[in-house]
Every structure is written in C-alpha cells, then in structure tokens.
Specification:
Distance between the termini: 52 Å
Number of strands: 16
Radius of gyration: 36 Å
Number of helices: 11
Helix content: 40-55%
Length: 417
Amino acid sequence: MIEASVSAVPRLVISFLILAIVLAVPTALVARSRGKAWPIRTALAVYLAGIVTVTLLPGNAGLESGQCDVGMPIHLLTSAGSLLNISLFAPGAFLAVLIFRRPVTVAATLSCLSATVELVQSVANIGRACSLSDITANVTGAVLGSLIGAIWVYQRRQAPRRPGRDLLWGALVLAVGTTSAAWVMHSRIESVDVVAMDDQRHRFTSSAVQADDWITSVAKGIYGDDVEMLGTVTEKEGSRLKITANTNRGSISGWWPERDIDRAWSSNTRGEEGGLNHEQVATIADDFARKWIPKNFAGSQRKIRPIGESPTTAYEVTYRRYAQGVLLPMRLDLTVTAAGRVIGFTAKTVEDPALPRVTMNEAKARALASSMTGTPSESALLLAQQIRGDWRPVWLVGSGNRDVAFDAATGERITIR
C-alpha cells in the first residue's frame, strides 16, 4: 500500500500538509471548545490525513481497476512492504485507544477502515493496488496498536470504558464490515493472485529460455552448425510451449517440454537432379526420422510415392502406425529430393491410444452406409477418433457425396465434427 507511495503519488508531502491542516485545525478548535484534550485529538486527525494521502490519492501504480490481489500474505513479518503497512495503522490505533478507551472497537473499526481503503483502491480507477496482504498487515497493525494502547491505559490506571459494551460493539463492527467487504469482493471485484502470476511468468520465462536453446540446437543439427538464427517465437498452449525458429536456411518448430519437433521446412524447396531409387530414399528417410522424430518412427509403416516425373523428381515418405488395423493418430510426412536432401517434414506426435476391440468389419460398415444413404459405398477407412473425449476405432465410409461414421467397437452410428 505505502511501499511505492512516494513514487506513485505526485507531490505527496504537499498533499499531506494541506489535508492535515484541513482536518487538524477544526479538530483542535472543537476539542478546545468542549474542554477536551486537543493535542492528542489533533494528532489523530493528522494521522488520518496521512492515511488518506498515502492510500487514496491518485497514483500511477497497481493492478487494473476492479481487481484485487488475494495471494496469501506469506511474508507478513519479513516483507518490507508488510512491515510498513503494519506501522501505518499501529499509531492511529494507539492514539484512538488513548482517546476513546475502547480497544476492541478501535481495532475492529481500523480493520474495517483498512478493508474499505483497499476496496476503494480497487473499484475507483485511481491507479492504486488492492491487496489482501496489505489488509492483513494493516489489521495486524491495528490490533497491535490497540493492544499497546490498552496496556498503556491500564498502566495509567485508566480503566477502559464499559468493557462488555466495547466487546459487543467491536464484534458488531467487525461482522458488518467483514460481510460488506465480502459482498463487494464477490460482486464488484475480480480476484487475482499476483504471487502465483509472478511465479507462472517466471516459470514461463525459464521454460522459454530452455525451449529456445533446444530448438536452436535442433536447427543447427538439421540445417548445419553454420546456420544463421533469425529469431524465435514462443506461444503458450495449455501447459506446453510451441516454439518456432526461423533461420537463413528454413524454419523449424516443436513442442516443449516434450521436445517433439512437429515441422521443419527448408527455404530452398526446389527439386534436385539425382538418381536415387526407392530403397535409397527409404534409407535416407528412415535415418532422418529415427534421429529427429523417433517417437513417430518407432513401429510405423512406411510408404513412398514420387512427386512428379522429371529428373528433379522428389519423394513423399509417409510413416503411419496401426493397431488392430486401426490407423492411429500419429503422423509423419517427409519430402526427400532425388539427390537425397530432406526438404522438410510435418509430424503429429500423439501417444498411441488404448482402443477397445474392433467388432465391425469393413463389409458390414459399407453395407450399413449404403443402406442409409441409398448409394453404393466408395471408400472405407478405419481410424482412431476422439468421441466425446475418448479414443474410439471408427469406420469412416464414403457413400455418394456423404461420409457415414460408425463406432467399430459397438457398431453404433456416430457424428464426427
């Protein structure tokens, strides 16, 4: 609350002096006219001026309007900011107890005042920070000041006024204040945990640095040690980071912390003359996939098809895995030139799902699709699909201009979106 007040509130001292005069002069005059001890009452008025100046004058620091930091005050007695906030409310509580001799009511009132100040800082767009830690520190200060005041009063043989009524009024003020603050917090204010957010940002920054180092090493491995790194872009998706590196020879992207490369593509995509046959292309592709995308390569089936028929023909090499004849969600596609250069690849790295046993064969799936559409089936593919969050074996049958899908384990027709 007050740790950054000097820098956050312009002309703090001038504002305090003006407000102190406005509050202290009338207080002193009224107290003297009523025969009360005016110095201590004037001191309390000056103190209240300090509270208002430090906490409610517009500043240029804090959370967004309508937010409050509800992180737990884990450094209440060790943080410099918390100690400042404790010392902010302790003197006022001490003075108020000397004047009114009702320590419980004073502690409760100043505690509610602290909560009110923090809520005003949140809902009134004044550039100040609402914080549960500040409230806790202020309440601690109010209780401590009231306790010291009560001890002082007892030592001077000035018994508190009506202790029972003091306790009752204190409890009532605290109950009303707590209920009102809770209602405002629930209805008007967004709760945020700044400490948790800071920790999350720190973890993100640390992970991003590690991911950057990893993608840089992979780029050098694929494109050569002398590749020039032009920059990286990191995006957070859930608990993972998607990192993309651009170089003078191509781009590459992958997932952290899994260290799964999902795409790399050379900036030179032109074909090259060469005399490699299918077997030689397969060896080059297998070696590349085994080294850089091992999770997708293991246990997969490879297919090769040529792209074009010129001397610069390239080859598309695909890798797929199957279980019970079901095409699994993993994907890997490489493009290799006739000279043996890997132009690029795309990969989808997904752990092989556990699927229920397939009970519907292709013939039955085609027959059901034809009976539903009134047209002969033209194609059928058995693949793994997520249905309502669960992986299922699915027959996808093309019939006419429609695709019909069946759960291959139950035979039930399903809708795929």
